[in-house]
Every structure is written in structure tokens, then in C-alpha cells.
Please model this.
Amino acid sequence: MKIHYRMVLLGVCAVGCGGSSGGVDDNELLVDVTPTQAVALCKQLSSDYPQKTVSCGSGVNVTVGDNGSDCASEGSGSNTIPASCTATVGDAENCVAAEYGDPCALASGSDIPQACDAFFACVAGSGS
Model:
């Protein structure tokens, strides 16, 4: 049940999103983030959103967050965000925060927070 959150966090780590606290301005476009920034920002997100499991009732448990173990390898690849993407570091950071803040919304498998629209449009390749 942590598919959406993991997808966001790993996508963020792969392109280097995170926020000004990770050394990258929130207004920087995702396509402009370097692999070195990706590692630092992934580690920052893992620190800000540590792994936790939440009981959502009816026997449904949702795990969100990360322990940072994927950060070094995730940032070493190339930035795969489409050049047409206009989402920013702040957009990705807001998406992670929204999913982490309401993990039971993820239990339905289709309830992606509105804060994730810009980020998911980019990783889906539509470039908005």
C-alpha cells in the first residue's frame, strides 16, 4: 500500500527534488536538478518524512516514508524528467508532504492528492 508514496519519493530522489532545506530552491525546475543535488535532497526528504506505518481500519495498514537507503543509488542516474516538464522542486516537495500527511487516503489506490498533479503530470510524460 505504499506504492504512491514510494513512487513519489523515488521519483523525487531520481531527479533531485526536495526543497530549499536540501540545498535546492523550491522554484527550481525538476529538469534542472543535478544528480549530486538529487542525493542530498533524497536524504533530506528521508529525514523529513521517516518511514511509518499507519492503521487505516478494516485491516488496512499503509506504510509511507523512507529510511534513506535508496538515496545514494537513486541520485547517481540521469534525470529522466521530460524537458517539457514545468513542475518545480516545491511541487514535488508538496506532493510528498501531502501523501505523508494523509497516508490512509492512499489506501484506495486512486486517491492521489491534488498537490501531486504537477509532479505526476511530468513523470507520466505530459510535461505540465
Summary: The chain has one domain: 3-123. Residues 1-7, 13-21 have pLDDT under 50 and may be disordered.
